[in-house]
Amino acid sequence: MEQPLLQINQVTISARKEGQWLPIVKDSDFVLHQNEILGIVGESGSGKSVTSLAVMGLLPNGILQVTKGAILFEGKDIAALPQKELQKMRGNAIGMIFQEPMSSLNPSLKCGYQVAEILKQHTKLSAAQIKTEVLSLFEKVKLPEPEKIYNRYPHEISGGQKQRVMIAMAIACKPKILIADEPTTALDVTVQKEIILLLKELQRETGMSIIFISHDLSLVSEIADRVLVMYRGEIVEQGNAESIFNNPQHLYTKALINSRPSLDVRLKRLPTIHDYLAGTVTKAEVTPQQRQAEHSKLYAQAPLLEVINVEKEYVSSAGLFGKDIKFKAVNDVSFTIYEGETLGLVGESGCGKSTLGNAILQLDKPTAGTIKYRGTDLSQLSAKQIRELRKEIQIIFQDPYSSLNPRLTVGRAIMEPMQVHKLYKNDRERKAKTLEILNRVGLGAEHFNRYPHEFSGGQRQRIGIARTIALQPKLIVCDESVSALDISVQAQVLNLLNELKENFGFTYIFISHDLAVVKYMSDQVVVMNKGRIEEMNEADALYEHPQKEYTKKLIAAIPGR
Fold it and tell me: Which among 156, 369, 399, 540 could bridge 310 via Cys, Cβ 3.0 to 4.6 Å?
């Protein structure tokens, strides 16, 4: 039997803390064969990315190190290689695609130049040959108009295109191993599907081996031959993709599969990893009859919000003598939302979802059409009235970290909007209310005086939700508010949003590119494409019987379908 390309032999990776080395990846043991795709699954902090950095010899000196075991690439121990040999190996024998292309690409250099640099470093090709090779790589990764993209800066191309440039860079020297670390996390389902198919095609063509890292097990099942599942620094299960996905043995693996909303069954509450590990999983379903009765009540009321023929046009100047270019980000959009309803808004990046959300919030006023809240035309309100309205219409942002002030403790951040809107008599009452809200979102009094950087991503999202509900709004716009979260944390946050909706009668506009999540959360779904409404229907009916080709394409791209 041939020797594996890569062997991880009983590897422990430790982090330096207060003068001690504490293990964060324990006794990791696996192999990667030639011409194989290995999926590594687990949530943030499970040790996936740290393991991949160790394989690249990129562990930060003095902070992380391999304290036990060996990482063998073609029989050579990576940890024992001198720096010069490691540099020769990186990009040449082992390539890597990082999670966030925008922060991995240099914003001040053109895309073509950045890929050419790799070839300049590792090959003896002439400048003309390098350019030809880069254009050929751009064609291989299916970038449209390679010549144009060669001369563009990263900010001038889309997220999916940036990820393709990163893939071109990673495969430029025809590496034997390609490590793809969460390469599709921030991408639309359709772009995600394209990237997965592209990686599979490249692997077939070149025969390279791929380590595909993700927190999404259903996504990994679409690409991997074998899968290993990591939890808290340990490998808890490994085997071929089919058996792991269809017959998981470990409770954690079962939880990862079942925490994701199902497209076939509508559960009252999503099971979380804690539920599985504590043995408290309940699988109560919402029947079609219950849902119908609920909808009959909802739609018998007067509408809370009416969006009527709304348009948002942007004009970009083409210089001194050029003609201004007009672009309609939102084009003739109409829908109605009722108190206590969740309206899902889906579509690919650039379809106008967030622009429409901003128009409803009056953060970016529409250029045409009417938005009525409780029968009042929002465009007729004065600045003072709009400020008062902010209390009733709130937003939960996509990135909780950048929407929280790092200098304010969490308690102060939640109290701040209460002070602005003069809620409650004094700070003592506001603090009592804040502690109550923290409790409602699954945090405690001990978190009041902590700062945002002291929390995990899921906890920060809970703080963002706490800050939003502090004003007791009627309508909440959730703009991609769970897209950056691990599967099980996402399940906790979705359960929390539904529970708050039940208890406080909130109304949600739920904006996301994750169709499984939107179906689970929504009463009605609006599908947007290029600024227009492509299709609109009750959530279950829309997924079961999509009418438009665009909707069918979006649904077909959902991982694990």
Answer: 369
